Amino acid sequence: MIRAYSVADVRAAEASETDRQPQGELMARAATGLTDVVLNRLGHDGDRVVVLVGSGDNGGDALYAAGHLAQADANVLAVLVGRSQHEGGLEYARTRGVSVLEWRAGEADSQVLSALAEADVVIDGIAGIGGRPGLPEHLRELPDHIADTAYVLAVDLPSGCDPAGLVTGPSIYADETVTFSMAKPVHLLPATEYAVGLLNVVDIGVRLPKVPVVERLTREDVLGLWPVPGPHDDKYSRGVLGVVAGGETYTGAAVMAVTAAVTAGIGMVRYVGPPAPTDLLRSRVPEAVFGDGRCQAWAIGSGWEMDSADPQQLSVARAALASSLPVVLDAGGLDLIDEPRDAPTLLTPHAGELGRLAERLGIPTGGGGVALAQRVADHLQATVLLKGAVTTVVPPSDAGLPLRSQADAPAWLATAGAGDVLAGICGALLAGGLSPLDAGSLAALVHGVAAEDANPGGPVRAMDVAHQVGGTVARLLHTPTA
Ligand SMILES: NC(=O)C1=CN([C@@H]2O[C@H](COP(=O)(O)OP(=O)(O)OC[C@H]3O[C@@H](n4cnc5c(N)ncnc54)[C@H](O)[C@@H]3O)[C@@H](O)[C@H]2O)[C@@H](O)CC1
Ligand SMILES: Nc1ncnc2c1ncn2[C@@H]1O[C@H](COP(=O)(O)OP(=O)(O)O)[C@@H](O)[C@H]1O
């Protein structure tokens, strides 16, 4: 599990460690850690390193690292871009042979521009976790001036990124981000993660706060969470999932959701739907049984439209929602919920569906993303899994649980039907007894890894992902680090 802590908690933890240490000790450790990473990344003697220095402690870390790198014979230029800078760090860098230029306002001069265009490594020490989202006015064009071939290494976070990870804005794009002691939300949430690159957490001895705000399951977590049957289990004790999905229009959605639930290893799947998807399922997934019956959880809505709903599907779905059983609502099923249920509920919208759901419920949609998912989760007292390149699983605030953020899928997974497959896996895990938070995040992880396993490095079709789920679960249970 990777855990990220709020900016306020990180600051408090750093302050208390600073009080325990001699002055400058934490910055010295950070600079040494950063230097080690850069030395590992430098390709050749004489590589040109440009260090962008802001006015905060982050710039101080970068200046001391610049001095260490110059001492190690790198060719280092520091560009001071803030109103001020860490004077001890600047003195250290100058005396170790670092060249220094300034770009504090307006246009950069030609020396700065050519250094950026020719750099092999750029260290971004402009803003840290105290930074506001967006780049200062004079640095707006900075990302365009950095050589495409330069290895961009951000200190703590790519400057311009929202430290809380909620707002997307102009920022540096890093190949790697070196942060200290612990991850922060900016490193894991969808609004900013794309700018972070490889995340490298360097321990500088700060004690971790008690409660994270964001968590990420790793492959090693699958073994502890995935429901594995024992000798006393039978198909009923392992969990029966009821699926209300597909209709005359989207027959395939039923096949994808049911196939994924079956390959995820559920005890049994009951399918409820009209003749077209039912006939297709009888031939494609003979393991499924048909018609209403006792279940441990329901997956409702993939490929389903409320306007033209099959009457039996509608009444079974409504009864499921009124029951005390766990329910996952996907796609058209999201139209069924208006108020909190008294049972575990997982909603799996993509961004478009989340916006529509919020509008229907009268929830302000401004900003979208994780903040909107949180408002919907609070309104409905349900867990909201917001699909995307980074999938976030957001429980209601008063549950007091960290949200989960998963980034396990190749972009090839952005393909029709992939969401139906995910809904089937979520349903199987809810029927297996997992909470909506565990079921949603674990399903997102396995779904993403299965997409990669189905055709490593290349395009996938949703049905191949559905068929791959069982093999991927086996692999993760037995060789999680592979
Ligand atoms: N073979 C099948 O039977 C398939 C059935 N499917 C079903 O088709 C139905 C319609 O699903 P759609 O999602 O296409 O249509 P929707 O009409 O629900 O959503 C698409 C709309 O949302 C907008 N949007 C905004 N952000 C988006 C995002 N991140 N991802 C996707 N759309 C976004 C799009 O621009 C578009 O206007 C669902 O019930 C789904 O389960 C699909 O899964 C495709 C395959
Ligand atoms: N760029 C991306 N990289 C990785 N995964 C993605 C990306 N875009 C979408 N996905 C994943 O693909 C799936 C698409 O689901 P959805 O939008 O519901 O499609 P559909 O309705 O066609 O099934 C989701 O699991 C989502 O997280």
Automatic annotation (TrEMBL):
Binding positions for AMP per the UniProt entry: 387-391, 419
Residues binding (6S)-NADPHX: 253, 303, 350, 420
Enzyme Commission number: 4.2.1.136
Co-factor binding comment: Binds 1 potassium ion per subunit.
Every YjeF N-terminal domain range: 5-212
Cofactors: K(+); Mg(2+)
Function: Bifunctional enzyme that catalyzes the epimerization of the S- and R-forms of NAD(P)HX and the dehydration of the S-form of NAD(P)HX at the expense of ADP, which is converted to AMP. This allows the repair of both epimers of NAD(P)HX, a damaged form of NAD(P)H that is a result of enzymatic or heat-dependent hydration. Catalyzes the dehydration of the S-form of NAD(P)HX at the expense of ADP, which is converted to AMP. Together with NAD(P)HX epimerase, which catalyzes the epimerization of the S- and R-forms, the enzyme allows the repair of both epimers of NAD(P)HX, a damaged form of NAD(P)H that is a result of enzymatic or heat-dependent hydration.
Subunit note: Homotetramer.
Name the record gives this protein: ADP-dependent (S)-NAD(P)H-hydrate dehydratase
Organism: Leekyejoonella antrihumi
Lineage of the organism: Bacteria, Bacillati, Actinomycetota, Actinomycetes, Micrococcales
Gene that encodes the chain: nnrD
